[in-house]
Amino acid sequence: MECSEARENLTDLNRGRLEGEPAEAVRAHVGQCATCAAALQREVEVRALIQAQAPRYTAPPALRRRIQAAMAQPRPAGWSAWRAWLRTHPWTVGSLAGAVAVLLLVWGGTLWMARDPVSRLAARAVAEHVEYSKEMMNRPTPDPPALVQELRSQVGFSFEPVFRGDSQVRLVAGLVSDLLGKRAATFVYRDGSGRYTTLFLMPEAGTTIPAENRMPIETFKPYHQVTSGRHLLLWKQRDLACLLVSDLDEAGMAAMFLKVRKAT
Amino acid sequence: MNHAQTPLPAEALGYLDALYNLARWLARDPVEAEDLVQETYLRAIRAAHQFQPGTNLRAWLFQILRNTFFTLYKRKGREPEAMDPEILDGMSGWDGPTGVGERMAGPPDGTAGLDLTAALTRLPEEYRSVVLLADLEDFSMGEIARIMDCPVGTVKSRLFRARAILKELLRDYVG
Fold it and tell me: Which of B77, B105, B130 is the last residue of a domain?
């Protein structure tokens, strides 16, 4: 047996995955070749060291919860599947249309009855934020300047400078969203514990900040409300209306606000 | 059931810690490792219809993880301290431990004895992954070849060289 053939099989020999005649052939070679014997010794030592001492990292609970949620979430069928399904269930089209109409009526009615403009804006922003979190839009964004430049060309208004993340909070996505007819430059951040914060920046014209429900944070007093368990802050800055929605608690939200407020 | 509705087998969640562990070694940052694992599962969920029941789900997920790593990160830019895998792969045949050590593995200041984590981190990703998949996950050579998308012979030679390099780097710890 050549040395190269013996060396190819040292790992499997050490792991007990080489048996019978091939194993005997490698052992016989190792018994006669000092270099390959040393290589086998090294194989045994290094593997044992790695197994005993290499750190094994455990997935954070927040990550586990997100993966569980993603796996449990039923996936919508694609359009082609929809068409195939409709072809085989034509009688349900009318029922579906009716159901959709009822849903629209209920949804629209609820908005019309219960929501002032700011509450509607807040509800929409929180819904968008939840959607981003659920969709796990945490793609690494290795180049925030390019992202900001791309967004600027898409939204059609100037919003810079903007908070681009720091050592505790990373900018993980940027996109254009539509908040009740207003185009918003939208930035999604994620902290080390997997909690998301979404910042919406839009032209301030037409946005009224209510005088009540202000949260004092240092010298600032942004409008504050809690919607669907998420803290929301709304304020004006330069010629922008700024809206921050977060999974963070009140203290965390205040700290995040300061980062955004001072960087924007 | 159409493709879009094929669920990812529930046992996939059982591999989360192992996938996260490799992700930490690849990305070398906790937050980026989370991103990597999360994206891996999202891709697996989307591609669940491509998985053949009864085949190796664990290896399939690791393969997605590694492919995702290369999609999301520019490897060259992220491994400034690692040795160049092209040089290592280009070395003839089965270079002995001494030759490898002298040419490639010595710490830059010539001091011996990095700790294990630092030594593993200095390995190029191709070598580090092979070692971790073999030693921590106990994958077979064939499974590692599939995960790494390379021939079995390449896996074996990389593992052999990785052992030689590690032993050089860990002179105070081994032998």
Answer: B77
DSSP string, B69-89: HHHHS-HHHH-TTS--HHHHH
- A260 Cα to chain B: minimum distance (Å): 20
Closest partner CB to A63 (pick from B8, B20, B42): B20
Query: Inter-chain contact A41–B175, Cβ cutoff 8 Å?
Result: yes
- Facing A81 at nearest CB: one of B2, B33, B45: B2
Please say if the pLDDT value at position B41 is more than 60. Answer: yes
What's the total number of domains in chain A?
A: 2
Q: What is the mean pLDDT of residues A72-80?
A: 54
Q: Is residue B113 situated within a structural domain?
A: yes
Between A12, A46, A68, which is nearest B13 by CB? A68
pLDDT of residue A83: 42
The whole-number average pLDDT for the span B76-101 is 48
**How much is the mean pLDDT over chain A?**
80
Q: What residues of A are in contact with residue B30 (Cβ under 8 Å)? A: 57, 60, 192
Q: Is B120 found in the same domain as B64? A: no
Is there a contact between A53 and B116 (Cβ–Cβ < 8 Å)? yes
pLDDT above 90 (res A161): no
Strand partners, A244: A199, A233
CB B167 within 8 Å of CB A38: no
Q: Considering its fold, how many domains does chain B have in total?
A: 2
Q: Is A234 exposed, middle or buried (0-12, 13-18, 19+ CB in 10 A)?
A: buried
Q: What is the span of the domain harbouring residue A9?
A: 3-53
Which residue of chain A comes nearest to B38, CA vs CA?
A: A67
Tell me, yes or no, whether B112 and B65 share the same domain: no
For residue A122, give the nearest of A256, A2, A232 by alpha carbon.
Answer: A232
Identify the domain containing residue B147 by its residue range: 80-169
With respect to residue A69, please indicate whether it lies within any of the assigned structural domains.
Answer: no
CATH number where A236 lies: 3.30.200.100
Residues B106-117: tens digit of each pLDDT: 443 444 456 889
Q: How far away is chain B from the Cα of A25, in angstroms, using its nearest Cα?
A: 18
CATH code of the domain covering residue B132: 1.10.10.10
In a domain? residue A251 = yes
Cα of B159 to nearest chain A Cα, Å: 8
Query: What pairing do the DSSP bridges indicate for beta strands A196-203 and A240-246?
Result: antiparallel
Q: Is residue A82 part of a domain?
A: no
